[in-house]
Amino acid sequence: MAFKEAARKASPVLLEPIMDVEVTSPADYLGSVMGDLNSRRGIIQHQEDGHGGVKIIRAEVPLANMFGYSTSLRSATQGRATYTMEFKKYSPVPISVAETVLKKAS
After folding, report:
1. Is 96 exposed, middle or buried (0-12, 13-18, 19+ CB in 10 A)?
2. Domain, as residue range, for 61
3. Rounded CA gap, 101 and 106, in Å?
4. Count of structural domains within the chain
5. Three-state SS letters, the chain
6. CATH number of the domain where residue 76 is located
7. 48 assigned to some structural domain
């Protein structure tokens, strides 16, 4: 009971893993790729031109929203885009998402 009381008074914050995502896509599909990343709560960090008319997009996206991204990317670009993903940091979960998670847990 003491631990529960201390946890309530400490104002804990729920954290989620944020991934560094790099997508390489033909320029024709740039809008679809960026729209999909934004719909997954992604934050576009950088965009640059690659060799052969491709665009390279770097974004930070929560890991929970990256499940199924491979299929989505293939569908949006007719299989012409690729991506890599690696862990970058932990970040506080938005309040609306945290409330949903806490409701499911209790």
Report:
1. exposed
2. 13-93
3. 9
4. 1
5. CHHHHHHHHCCCCCEEEEEEEEEEEEHHHHHHHHHHHHHCCCEEEEEEECCCCEEEEEEEEEHHHCCCHHHHHHHHHCCCCEEEEEEEEEEECCHHHHHHHHHHHC
6. 3.30.70.240
7. yes
> What type of residue is 70?
S
Contact between residue 76 and residue 97 where contact means Cβ atoms under 8 Å apart: no
**In this predicted model, what pLDDT tens digit does every residue of 4-60 receive, in sequence order?**
888 888 888 899 999 999 999 999 999 999 999 999 999 999 999 988 889 999 999
Does 69 reside within a domain? yes
Give the predicted TM-score (pTM) of the model.
0.82
The pLDDT tens digits of the residues spanning 45-85 come to: 999 998 888 999 999 999 999 999 999 999 999 999 999 99
Question: Which amino acid would we find at residue 2?
Answer: A
Residue 76 lies inside a defined structural domain of this protein: yes
Within a domain: 63: yes
